[in-house]
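dumping this here before i forget
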Amino acid sequence: MSAQTVHVGAGVDRDTHPDAARSYLADARGVAWDPPAPGGYRLAVDAELAAQRVPGAVVRRARLTEPVEPQDFWARWTRAEVLAKLLDVPILLWVREHGLLVPDLGAEAVAWRTYAWEDLVVTFAVRAPQDPAD
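structure:
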C-alpha cells in the first residue's frame, strides 16, 4: 500500500475521488483508495476510528459478548465490510450469516490486509476477475 494511493480527510468523497474505493468515518472524514489495478479487478476499502466505542447493539448483532476491545473489533468489522462489498452482499446480511468470521470463499480470489494507520483501522481488499465459464 502506497501512501500516494490512500487519501484521508474531510474533503474526500465521491466528487473528489470518483474512481476510488471509498469509506466514510464517524468524524465526517472520508477515506479513498485508488491504486492502479489491472482490468477487471475490484477494490474495496473500509475504515473505522480505532478508539471509537463499539455500540452494544453492533456487538450483539455480530454475536459477540461485551466487553470487546475496539481496535480488535473494528479490524474484524472492516474485514467483513470489504468482503461483503466485494461479494455484493449487504453487510447486515453478511453479519447475520457469518458474524465477523471469514467463511470458505470457494473459488473466489480475494485478498485483504488490515492496518492500524494513524487513528484508524483500515482494511483494503481486492477481488480478481471471475472466470466467465463459472
